[in-house]
Specification:
Length: 642
């Protein structure tokens, strides 16, 4: 057994005490190194010796990145409460009886009287002064013309670690303070089982964390807010289903459509309709169908339209984009995988009648179709490497288009504030801003937004903010300066004039093209019609009349040519006589000038050749030019030179 003794004592009570005294500075020999004389021979003297000195204080710059402070917003949904347990709020009689009982209580009356005084004081303050009054509303804005500019305000990153593309975005209808963003991986077989399906609702004032998470059964490909209710969101899923959320009820969808009655491919477009109930919307997919839904009955669509390649075709084509204008409640447009745009009318009785027109122009899938908010008859589309502007009056071709860009165009949208401004997103991460009134040859501003491809772009309803979604899941919020968000004087009329001018030009070109086609057909038909006449049979009376008409023109042309030669010879002879007699008269250069003015080089072709050129158009020759005054007498005399 080990025995230990422990002694405890304070340190200050044993050992030598430490004492401190003052000393003058001294060199500690023990801490110094004595010189070595043997190293003296190895020392090299440098003469002269140059040294650089900078007469400025030395500065250093340091950067530090602090940890991100993440905030989270939580809310509670309150419903009507405060009722006793024995009162059923669904029964009107019980609630009315309880209210009458409470209103007779003296405590209730005293509380109401006390609150009325406070409320009356606040009402009088509001009536005395309006803190929101604008004193200079009638003054015109004196805006200085500044170059267009887009400034990055915030970045909203996908909380999920795996990079997912931002495939669709939609601003909330209550002022644009919130943004619904859909995240998905559309590349074939790129996603795995660990990929999240969540999409988010972002508050523009909090870029650190999304305000709400949407948890669908499949990744959301297209998302849309209800224009009448900011708490309702509908989404088209990757597996073809559609679902809707009530943001007051949580992250889970309230109801999802049945798979058997849904699309068979990803829902590429979804838009709300302007119905009185505010509960109807329609969707399209690459399965070649357009389905109409009502959130009050999501089990199956109440109407279906199959997309076909043409009125006389049975080939199905897939839809990739939708466009609906509230001012045209029965019309909508569908962009297809084949590069065409279908103009549809819901009032048609048959599917062929519902698809009223086709617009062809793109060489790849149409990613976006959007009408101009100020001039709805004009709309833009994006596909392949160009953005095209269309008019409803012309279906054969677009009236304007951008040059083929080096990068693929992915999306575009009009500015809600300026009629002539639109934005295009590209795969190289750049955003182009176009102003058709200022410059039609190229963009007025190109902004490098991201190092990855931009997938979608959306402008706020007020036209001040713009969001761009990229392929790595980052949403960039841009603020536009006054030049891009304030409409110029008569800009709408100027833009309409540009569109109308281009529309007329295309109509003229179309008419010319039709004439050339008719000319080609007529040229092929004339030899076939001339063969029976050579055999002795009676020819076509129309062809014979045309032949007689052009023969008469040819004879008149030959006579006109002879008369002009006679007049020229007579003038020349008269001038020679005037020179020999010494009388005043026009000089030889003057005669040459008159002859050149009267018979320009373009008119010295043979008359039969001119007739053959004019024959297909059906135009007759113009009347002979008037003879200049002072030369009529000499031109009337017969020429003696011949």
């Amino acid at each position: 057994m080990e025995i230990a003794h422990v002694y405890s004592k304070k340190r200050r009570e044993f050992g030598r005490q430490c004492t401190f005294t003052d000393y003058t500075p001294a060199l500690d020999k023990n801490g110094t190194i004595d010189p070595d004389p043997s190293l003296h021979d190895q020392y090299i003297f440098k003469n002269p010796c140059d040294a650089a000195i900078q007469c400025a204080p030395e500065m250093s710059e340091h950067e530090t990145n602090t940890e991100r402070f993440e905030t989270e917003t939580r809310g509670m949904g309150h419903i009507e409460g405060g009722w006793p347990k024995d009162i059923n709020i669904q029964e009107a009689e019980q609630t009315i009886r309880f209210r009458k009982k409470v209103e007779k209580d003296e405590v209730y009356i005293n509380v109401i009287q006390r609150l009325c005084n406070v409320m009356e004081h606040s009402i009088r303050q509001n009536n005395a002064i309006d803190i929101y009054e604008e004193y200079f509303q009638d003054m015109e804005d004196n805006l200085q013309v500044a170059p267009p500019e887009a400034k990055t305000v915030n970045l909203y990153r996908d909380p999920h670690k795996q990079a997912r593309s931002v495939v669709s975005m939609c601003w909330s209808p209550d002022g644009g303070n919130k943004l619904a963003a859909a995240y998905s991986i559309l590349d074939f077989q790129r996603g795995d089982s660990n990929t999240k399906l969540d999409s988010y609702i972002w508050d523009m004032t909090n870029p650190n964390h999304p305000e709400m998470t949407l948890k669908p059964s499949s990744p959301i490909v297209s998302i849309q807010y209800s224009p009448k209710d900011a708490h309702t969101v509908v989404g088209g899923l990757y597996n073809g289903q559609v679902a809707y959320w009530d943001l007051r009820k949580g992250s889970q969808p309230v109801e999802t459509s049945a798979i058997a009655h849904s699309h068979t491919d990803a829902v590429r477009g979804i838009i709300y309709l302007t119905a009185k109930s505010g509960s109807e919307f329609f969707s399209t997919s690459t399965d070649g169908r357009v389905l109409w839904w009502d959130i009050r009955k999501m089990s199956e669509p109440y109407e279906t339209l199959d997309l076909i390649a043409g009125k006389n075709s049975t080939e199905a084509i897939g839809g990739t984009a939708l466009e609906f204008e509230s001012t045209m409640p029965t019309k909508f447009m569908v962009g297809t995988e084949q590069g065409s745009i279908i103009s549809c009318n819901k009032k048609g009785k048959t599917p062929a009648d519902k698809m009223a027109g086709f617009y062809y122009g793109h060489h790849g899938p149409v990613h976006t179709v959007q009408r101009n908010p100020f001039v709805p008859k004009n709309f833009l589309s994006v596909g392949d490497w160009t953005c095209r502007l269309w008019s409803e009056e012309i279906r054969e071709t677009s009236i304007m288009w951008t040059r083929n860009d080096e990068a693929f165009l992915t999306d575009a949208c009009w500015s809600p504030a300026r009629p002539a401004v639109f934005f295009t997103a590209k795969q190289n991460g750049c955003l182009d801003t176009w102003d058709l009134v200022q410059d039609q040859a190229g963009p007025v501003l190109t902004t490098h937004v991201s190092d990855r491809a931009l997938q979608c772009v959306k402008a706020q309803d007020q036209g001040e903010l713009l969001v761009c979604g990229s392929k790595n899941g980052v949403i960039t919020l841009l603020e536009l300066n006054d030049t891009l968000r304030t409409a110029q004087n008569n800009e709408k009329n100027a833009f309409s004039g540009v569109m109308d001018r281009e529309t007329r030009r295309e109509k003229i070109l179309e008419g010319r093209q039709r004439e050339l086609k008719l000319k080609e057909k007529a040229g092929k038909a004339q030899p076939a019609e001339a063969e029976p006449a050579e055999g002795g049979e009676e020819g076509d009376p129309v062809a014979k009349a045309e032949e007689d008409f052009f023969s008469i023109l040819q004879n008149e042309g030959e006579e006109l040519k002879k008369k002009r030669e006679q007049r020229a010879a007579a003038r020349l002879k008269k001038d020679e006589q005037s020179e020999t007699s010494g009388t005043s008269g026009p000089t030889v250069p003057r005669v040459e000038t008159q002859v050149s003015e009267e018979i320009p080089p373009s008119q010295t072709l043979d008359i039969p050749q001119k007739i053959e050129q004019a024959k297909p158009m059906g135009n007759s020759l113009a009347p002979p030019e008037a003879v200049p005054s002072g030369t009529q007498e000499s031109s009337a005399k017969p020429a003696t030179a011949e």
